[in-house]
Design brief:
CATH topology of one domain: Rossmann fold
Low-confidence stretches: 302-314
CATH class of one domain: Alpha Beta
Strand order of the largest sheet: 3-2-1-4-5-6-11
Structural class: alpha/beta
Shape: globular
Number of strands: 13
Radius of gyration: 19 Å
Mean pLDDT: 90
Order of helices and strands: EHEEHEHEHEEHEEEHEEHEHHHHH
Distance between the termini: 26 Å
Helix content: 25-40%
Number of helices: 12
Largest sheet: 7 strands, parallel
Strand content: 15-25%
């Protein structure tokens, strides 16, 4: 591969994907579009990363970005919003991307969806993710779909959020505390993306990206509190109280910690179905959350994910 377009490359998963691609292919030309250049400033340290200010929802701009690329990785997603927002990002963008890739003469695509995506799923998030998958499957591209469970890692929204909440709250009211997940390390998800990009035999297949442990949300939250030095008692909320809590959080300014649609997504366990290949089929031994999280949640630990690149490319 000589040139790859990474949509959503400035985000949490995207940073790891870009780093791993450059490590694997030092001369690779990475194209990373962003709405505002400062959002992707941390990637400028990577060799040959081209940060382009562009609207990926604009079909003309997207076609221009894809032209000359060997492959595209789509990581663009939202967790909060109205039904129309989810449709725009998770369904219409894949449709636009399909047309842009055909116009640009690019066939290879890796698309990151979500575990539990289905047309009958209880949330707008999961239904729109399924609609995006269907659009790509019908689009005639050589697409591989990855479905991760909860993704953790340095700078994540999962463990860091619960660590911060327990640092300030004496008791933690917790919705959906009994729901189970298989938390997967962001570096393992990134490695899976690189693996399927390298191997064209994965085109047309779906991979479930899950960690080695099945854990309840309560166990995950307890781990975050223990590692950060602030483990607090939990109060498991009944469903009606959880929906009231989510509604109130939606009313606060800024991005909500939880929405009612997030809560509806939690009706679906984030565990592997066993009907699709997983990380082991890609030759990846997934890391356990307890082996990785102490490195960035322990008191006094600071971010260090790009220190290696800084030392090499000052």
């Amino acid at each position: 591969m000589k040139k790859v377009l990474v949509l959503g490359g400035s985000g949490f998963v995207g940073r790891s994907v870009c780093e791993q691609l450059v490590r694997r292919y030092p001369s690779l030309h990475l194209v990373v579009p962003t709405r505002r250049a400062p959002h992707a400033g941390h990637l400028r340290i990577l060799p040959a990363a081209e940060i382009v200010v562009a609207d990926v929802h604009d079909p003309v701009a997207l076609t221009a970005l894809a032209r000359g690329c060997d492959a595209v990785v789509n990581l663009v997603a939202i967790l909060h919003g109205k039904a129309a927002d989810f449709e725009a990002v998770h369904r219409r963008l894949p449709e636009t991307l399909t047309r842009a890739m055909h116009a640009a003469g690019v066939a290879r695509l890796v698309h990151v969806s979500a575990l539990g995506a289905a047309s009958y799923a209880p949330s707008n998030y999961l239904r729109s993710k399924a609609a995006g998958e269907d659009a790509l499957k019908a689009g005639g591209l050589a697409v591989t779909i990855l479905r991760p469970s909860l993704v953790f890692g340095e700078g994540d929204r999962l463990l860091n959020l619960f660590a911060r909440l327990q640092a300030i709250a004496p008791v933690l009211p917790l919705a959906a505390s009994h729901v189970h997940f298989q938390p997967v390390w962001v570096e393992d998800v990134a490695a899976a993306i690189v693996k399927v990009l390298e191997d064209p035999s994965w085109a047309g297949r779906t991979v479930e990206c899950c960690g080695p442990q099945v854990m309840s949300l309560s166990e995950i939250v307890r781990l975050a509190g223990r590692l950060s030095g602030h483990e607090r008692p939990q109060i498991a909320l009944p469903w009606w109280a959880a929906r009231v809590q989510a509604f109130l959080l939606e009313c606060l300014p800024g991005q909500p910690l939880m929405s009612r649609d997030n809560l509806d997504s939690l009706r679906v366990p984030g565990v592997a179905s066993g009907r699709q290949p997983g990380l082991a089929d890609l030759g990846i031994t997934p890391a356990a959350i307890g082996a990785v999280a102490p490195g960035y949640l322990a008191p006094g630990q600071g971010p260090a994910r790009l220190d290696g690149w800084r030392s090499l490319h000052r």
